[in-house]
């Protein structure tokens, strides 16, 4: 999902240049193009089969479940082994759902909740949420003008796009723990570089070129983290650590908590940068570093 969105940005960002569609006369074409792309995506996705797990466990439709497995996993998929896993999950469903109080009172489930929460806060404390709203403003604060910002965003997307193609191989080769640590480390590096860039832009205007370069390199680091799985750490850990009856409550707690904190961090960004400059970046660097240390331990 993250890789696909980056590739889409590589294609669409050049259209946002003032000399193309990013001007007062033609800007309406941009949402129109996005709407057409969304409709094309929906028109294709509507023909995808339903989840094989849903078909097997809830609809008890084994033939369609097998067809769905073959569609998503290819002809090499071992349906018998997958069927055994689905049977175990269906058995777990007969035990009912676990409440949050039961999760907290159980040592094993409490530990699983703690790990999932840490993974949920890796993207929360990263720059991805702030950049989704203020990336252009952030780069302009480093010294870029509007046209240069668009070119910089294009450069970030193009330079980080090769990770899209090597990410599956990296994920397969290095395993879960090194992957999670790498993603968290890239997020820490991004805040560090963005913080230095903001510090130089705040009171050292003779170093604006360095500020701009650090801002771009930091953004590339964040894009690489996103493509390596920054946004899917939580679902991976939920599927691996949490028994089926408690997945819903753990997912709800981790998701709602991380979203609330993300909203606060994003809302604080413009005022904080105006008042304390790079202090915001280094505060987020500290929080991101704490997540990295907790993951490492």
Automatic annotation (TrEMBL):
Any one GO MF annotation of this record: hexose transmembrane transporter activity
Keyword Disulfide bond: no
One Gene Ontology CC term in the entry: membrane
Signal peptide: 1-22
Organism superkingdom: Eukaryota
Pfam families per UniProt: Sugar_tr
Protein localization: Membrane
Keywords of the record: Membrane, Signal, Transmembrane, Transmembrane helix
Keyword Transmembrane in record: yes
Ranges in coiled-coil conformation: none
Membrane-crossing segments per the record: 28-48, 111-130, 150-171, 178-201, 213-236, 248-266, 278-296
PANTHER family, per database record: MAJOR FACILITATOR SUPERFAMILY (MFS) PROFILE DOMAIN-CONTAINING PROTEIN, SOLUTE CARRIER FAMILY 2
Protein name per the record: Major facilitator superfamily (MFS) profile domain-containing protein
